[in-house]
Amino acid sequence: MARTRETFVCQACGAVHPRWQGKCDACGEWNSIVEEKAPPPASARPLPRSKGKARMELVDLKGDAPDAPRRKTGIGELDRVLGGGLVPASAILIGGDPGIGKSTLLLQAMAAVANGGGRAVYVSGEEAIGQIKMRARRLGLANANVELAAETNLAAILGTLEAGTPPDVVVIDSVQTLWSDTLDSAPGTVTQVRACAQELVRMAKSRGTAVLIVGHVTKDGQLAGPRVMEHMVDTVLYFEGERGHQFRVLRAVKNRFGPADEIGVFEMTGAGLTEVLNPSALFVGDREARASGAAVFAGIEGTRPVLVEIQALVAASPLGTPRRTVVGWDGGRLAMILAVLDARCGVGLGSHDVYLNVAGGLRIGEPAADLAVAAALLSSATDSPLPLDVVVFGEVSLSGAIRPVAQAEARLKEAAKLGFKSAWTPSGLKLGSTPLPVVEIGDLAQLVARFGDLPRPARAKGT
Fold first, then answer.
1. Which of 139, 203, 229, 359 has the most CB atoms less than 10 A away?
2. How far apart are the first and last CA of the chain?
3. pLDDT score at 199
């Protein structure tokens, strides 16, 4: 029997090092390298070919093929993010911060699948069966026909699931708690997580079972373990939310069976997670009070138009280095907007503290929010409130020009549905029909002209 060799593996990125060191050269993390035992590498000689026994089936691409049947989970927002429901033989990875509601959502989904006539199995490596039943009673799911197990041994889990009739849906909570007896590494290490995830995906493909795998996240919000795990699965979902908000956002970042970047919105209540059917009304909130520094952005999340309020506060700073605090948006993008306002429009906010917040705990990634951010900054700097019935969207270029964005009609229709009366948009949009009157803004200078006296940058003497 070949001897195993010792390797040193980074638990953050999976990079292998010949010896222990304090810092990983691949990802830059400190104290993340752990000694693991791995089998020796295969011989360099070519592998012997099989004598005609192994075969693979070849299927012609031409011809009609039915769409993959989907199983509804009974939770509309979850089905929306998945692309219409669970696809048999699919592997789905779900990550999120501790306590965000991953286990609660999956238990509710398994109860809905079981009540719809499907066989649902919930395997937990973090809770005892009594604890799961206690949570089910609190959620009103005590009578759901869900099969429970508390197990961390991968061989026992696979042996049970592959015996008899395969279940329709299986939840593994979580992959970091599983261990394979064929490896000497501890549970949660890169080697164990990679091997366990690979076996679960193999079981899903061979048995036709949809497998939902819960994964832990790092302090940066990324899924812990090797990056290859996200490549192995069919769908990757992130459960997002702020501790101070009761709202949760389920976001698809990879989906082989539906659109990526789709979101589902939930509200955490005492009875579990409930769906939010109109997230635009939720994120815009109460806008009866007329306050400066607030602009409503008409965005697109996946296939869904979402309206969200962007709040900005600009205040004179007593510090030599003013603060730049951003919640829910890209800090580098904010620095770019401030630089363009200074260089192209003469609006100097370099000596001011700038705070930017996306209301409701939503995170925005699309550049179409640039114009709304600029409008909120100018509104706060001049203490001039924007009209309550205006939505704003557009991308700001480094030259100060406002670039058109995609799906403008869908954004305008969503704003009209919520009672907005006009929109500030980039010029040159090709709109078939405009449900709202549109005010076209060609560059940032035109936006600046809509506000009063603005801070000017301090110039050195003699310039």
1. 229
2. 79
3. 95
Task: Please compute, for residue 124, the number of CA atoms within 13 A of its CA located in the half-sphere on the CB side.
Answer: 20
* pLDDT of the residue at 271: 84
Dig out the tokens for 34 from the structure. 């752990």
Predicted structure pTM score:
0.81
Check whether domain 281-448 has CATH 3.30.230.10, yes or no: yes
Instruction: Identify whether the C-beta of residue 267 lies closer than 8 Å to the C-beta of residue 94.
Output: no
Which pair of tokens denotes residue 227?
A: 């990056």
Q: What is the pLDDT of residue 133?
A: 95
Give all strands of the β-sheet with 16-17 in edge-to-edge order. Answer: 16-17, 5-10, 33-38
What residues does each domain of the chain span?
A: 5-38, 76-277, 281-448
Return the bridge partners of 94, or none: 214, 237
* Binding site listing for ATP: 96-103
Region class of 85: left (phi > 0), else alpha (psi between -120 and 50), else beta: left
> What pLDDT, on the 0 to 100 scale, is given for residue 99?
87
pLDDT digits (tens, 9 = 90+) for 213-248: 999 887 777 787 777 889 999 999 999 887 667 888
Binding residues: 96-103
Q: Are 418 and 433 in contact (CB under 8 A)?
A: no
pLDDT value at position 46? 52
The predicted structure's pLDDT at residue 459: 47
Pick the closest to residue 347 from 462, 441, 451, 463 (CA basis): 451
**347 Cβ contact list (under 8 Å, min separation 6):** 341, 378, 381, 448, 454, 455, 456, 457
Copy the structure tokens of residue 276. Answer: 């939010």
Label residues 292-308 b or e (16+ Cβ within 10 Å = b): bbbbbbbbbbbebbbbb
Q: Compute the distance between CA of residue 236 and CA of residue 226 in angstroms, rounded to an integer.
A: 14
For 83-111, how does the pLDDT look when each residue is reduced to its tens digit (9 = 90+)? 999 999 999 999 988 888 999 999 999 99
Residues of the chain falling short of pLDDT 70? 1-5, 38-53, 64-68, 243-244, 285-290, 452-463
Instruction: Round to whole Å and give the CA distance between 142 and 272.
Output: 13
For position 204, what pLDDT does the model report? Answer: 95
What ranges make up the beta strands (E) of 174-303?
A: 210-215, 235-240, 247-255, 263-269, 272-275, 294-301
Cβ-based burial of 149 (10 A; exposed 0-12, middle 13-18, buried ≥19) = middle
| In CATH, 76-277 is 3.40.50.300 | yes
